[in-house]
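Extended Data, panel c. Modelled sequence:
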Amino acid sequence: MKISFGKTSALLTGDIERPTEKRLAVEDLSAVLLKVAHHGSATSTTPELLAATHPQLAVISVGARNVYGHPRMEVLQRLQGRQVRTYRTDMQGAVTFYLDGKGASAKPAALH
């Protein structure tokens, strides 16, 4: 699902994986914010999707010390290689994103 407001948008990818990302990558997916698919698994957040989206911010919803090893290092490296500022719920807790139609900002929860 893509949500747009003014010149900003967020792409919420749910649990899509490589085949769906490849089909979507031919669309105009440009988004300031990307919700990384499938908790950052190796089968998601492909180079094709990142090229179609070119996000500035990303969030990975993932539990701390999960048994699946998410997010996967290759996904983190792909995001870093594109200079996407990435937030992780396992490290920063809940993160609130503000899209004002002109730009986007993030506010991580205060963890104690």
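The two ends are 33 Å apart (CA to CA). This feature is highlighted in the accompanying rendering.
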